[in-house]
Every structure is written in structure tokens, then in C-alpha cells.
Amino acid sequence: MPIINPISLKKQYVVAIAGPVIVGFAFLLLYNHIHASIVAFFLLFLLSIIAMFFELKPVLLTAFSCAFIWDFLFLKPQFGLLVETSDDVIRLLTFFIVALLNGVLTHKIRKAEKIVWDREEKENILKLYNTLFSSLSHELRTPVTTISGCADSLINHGSALSEKDSQQLLTEISSASFRLNQQINNLLNMSRLESGFLHIRKEWCDIRELAEQVVEGLKYKFGQHKVTLSIQPELPLVSLDFGLMQQVLLNLLNNALLYTQIDSSILITAVVENNHLILTVEDNGPGIPEAEIGKAFDKFFRGANITPGGTGLGLSIVKGYTEAHHGKVSIKKSDMGGAEFIVNIPVSLKELYETS
Amino acid sequence: MKQVNMNPYKILVIDDEPSIRKLLEIELQASKYVVSEAENGKKGMSKILADQPDLVILDLGLPDISGHTVLKKVRQWYKNPVIILSAQSDEQDIIKALDNGANDYVVKPFKNKELMARIRTALRFSTKIEPTEVYNYPGLEIDTATRTVKKNGQYVKLTVTQYDLLMLFCKNEGKVLTHHTILKSVWGDEHVTQLEYLRVFVAQLRKKIEDEENGIRKIFTESGIGYRFVADSM
User: Residues of B with CB below 8 A from A250's CB?
Assistant: First the structure.
């Protein structure tokens, strides 16, 4: 596997020669205070560092230039390539061999590490794709199947169907298409996060309004769920990306609706403490099993006891968007008995004092 | 206001997608509107000129000329409401259309109910032409002669800026106003980028004219775009 190096080969060769020369001449200033073997250690150190980042040939060149500069500047006669004593011959030879071994070995270790790392990365990507495809084909095809199937029976047996049955089919089409749209939105959000094109646009947000809009938007899904909004009175404006934070709360509420019985209670709270906005969504449902807590925010992870309708992306988007705000999201057991999701984000505040 | 049965509103749909035109035709006719259609920008413009519809539903992504161009051109002589259909939730596109004179927008895929509500709102306010001295909303009364405001019968004291902001909202009830438009008309050209002014003043104004405990809103945030004032949305 080729090692992709951000430093061009030409530059690597330049550094391979210039590096030892610069280090050598720098130590030359200390010539009278320092022993040649100390310089040798520093040159080997430089070589090790270079070997960690460069291709093999520049590394070998570095080993040569280290040996050369050491001999030239620090072994007698100074400024000559000849070596006077047999001691020095052995020293130079040893230095050269150690330098070569050092360079080659460091380089090899790095290469081996990279191969292992690449293989792991490849396996992870493959695993992710497999999950993605199985999840996607299921989550996208199910609503499409519903839509096309219901529409077909309306077209083929329209007049023969009872009023009640055709209403039922039409309701199925409508709800399946909204589910489909939600999945598409989740996927788009996820790819925005993954591609790194996510730009946070902070503005002064009224959290009460943000939460009210989210609750209003999901009302059609409530059934007998009892959703309560508890916002700290006199909450100042906080600096957030309104749209992204709405998505965070929407996904958390959606998640609570998906994982609880239809007659459950859900409580949304928002407070500001020490310049942090703390947003919680808790319920009195079954809660999250200990074993699943660590995985809940993973992409495509789906809890064991779930009603159909999720993509397994909602919570990882919550995590991604919260972290994009330099915040943290966590789960604990709620005082209400079910799960409690806590979003904690550092924010600037703007009090609503009258100014003009 | 017009009697729906006697003299129904005429609505023109400009969209290149036949299935969307069909869908809108059925939905609008079910609500007793008279519907005409155009599949591109040029035909749309000539139909606006010829038919003088009471409202236009305009798709931004048209095959020949963009919806923005259509809007800009017709706004020079056409005063009735225009509602934008936008394919992506691209805020910049929506803001541009609103600044070019669109009254409202709906993002595809839209809920029919929501589009119909927007149409009703737009038509309702487009027929209120005369400038009034007294605005009488449920739970909110504004007398422009004396510059006094009452919430649930009680006088509320507004600062000059808060009052100006409220006036702008009243005069444009039901219409989406972009941040830019509001900043420009209340604070002036040099402050059009100072969104935080607007946020703070809107929040202050809300406290004074809305009934927070009962969850009754009058100023609605259009995320990333602007605000809409609807005073009798009960």
C-alpha cells in the first residue's frame, strides 16, 4: 500500500541534506564545550524524526548526510573526510550502521502501523457501508412499498373498496410519505455533518420559542403522549444556531415518542447555568438498557424495543450538532422512570434589559 | 371581503412539474378557488398580465427563466400576493424571493393544509387595503393617533423603537418580513447587519404584547429568514 505523504519528495530530499547540515553547524558553535558523541546522538535523534515522516530513499540519504557531516565537522581532522585514528574509523562506521538501521527500522515500523491502521479503517468503512445499505434499503423501501402498494390498490379496486378502507389506504400513503421525507432529511443532515460542510451560524435565540415550534411541529405524532414544556422563566437570549438546535430538540423528542408507549409523559426542560444552556428531554418510558447507553449515539444503532419509523441516525445527528456547538450530550436514568437526554452547551447570553 | 361563492378568488399556479400542478389544481378547486396554470416563467408572466389573478403560486426552479426573475419583473406592476414554492429549504433563495416582494413561502414537500392556510392568510390581508387608525386584535389594541397600546385592556408602555417595530408588523400582517427588511425600515440602512438588535427588541416586544402563559403568540419566527406577525391566529 503506497504511503500518501503530504510532503513532496523533492522537499524531502532537500531536508535530508539540509537538516543534518544545519544541526551539524549549529553544534559547531559549541565545538569546544561538547563531545563529538553528544552530537552523534542529536544527529540520530534528527534522523529518527525524519524517518517517521519521510519515504525510504530520503531517509537513507539523511543517514548518509548525518554520517558525512559528523565526520566532516567533528572527527579529526576537522573539515576533512579522512579519519586519523582507527578508533575514529570504528566510531564512524558504527555511527553509520546505527544511523542506517535507525532510519530503516523507524520507517518500517511506521509503514507497518499505517498498514494496520488502513486495514482497520477499511474494515470500519466496510462495516459502516453494510449497515448503511441494510438500514437504508429497509428504511427507505418500507415507506415506498407502502405508498406504491396503497396507491395500486386504490387504482385497481377504487370503486370496490369501502369508504373506510380507502380512507385507511390514503392515510397510510400520507404518513408513509412523511416518514420518507423525515428519513431523507436525516440523511441530508448526516451527510452535511460527515462532509465537514456544516457551518454554524450563531444568532440570539429565544429558547422558549425554539422549543414551542418543535413541539408544535411534532404534535401530529403525539397520540396520547403527554408532552410538557418547562422553560426557565426570564431566560435570556442565548447564542446558538437556531436551525441546528431545533433539529437537536426535534430528534430527541422524536426519539422519546418512538421509544415510549403511546400514553407516556415526556418532559422538556431548558435552563441556563453558568453560561451553559442545559436542555433535557425525559420520559417515563422503559428507559435505555445499561448495555445500549454507550451505543445510543452511534450511527445506525437502533434500540431493541422500537416501533418502526426511525433511521438510527437521529441521535448521532444530535451528538454531531451538539458537538459542533462545543457541547456535550449524555444519557441517564430519569427521575420520571425512563430515559433522560441532557444536552449541555456553552453559550453567550443576552439579557433582555430595556435599552432605548 | 369578497364572497367566496359569488366571486371566487383566481389563483395562478406557475410550476414546471405536471404532478404538482395537478395536485394543486385538485386541492385548490376543492377549496372553491378558480385555478389557472402555467408551466414556465414566460407563460406565467403573460398569464399574470392577462388574468390578473388574486394570488400567484410561483415555483423558483423554472426551466426557462428563474422564479426570481419572474417575481422581480411582475412586481413592478402586479400588487397581489405571491407565494413561493421552494424545492430545497435553501434559506438564501427564500430570503431573496421575499426581498423581491414575495409575501410568503412554502418548502417542498409541503403539507396541503399548510399551503392552504398560507393562501387564506395572504388573501385575507391583501384585501385590507385602507390604512387604519386603530388596530383591534384579540387581546391587543393599538391606537396610532395617540400611539397607545393595550394588552388585554391594560396599557403597555413601549419604547419608541418597540412601537416602530410593532407598527411595521401591523402594516404587514400575515407577510413574512426578512431580517434585512425589518432592520432597514426600523433602524435604517446602516444597521442592516445588526441582527442582535432585532432579536433583543423582538423578544422585548413579545413580552409586552403576547400572552406567554397561555401560549398565545403574535410574532412568529421563520428560522434563519425573518418574522411573521399574525395577531388573530386563534
Answer: none
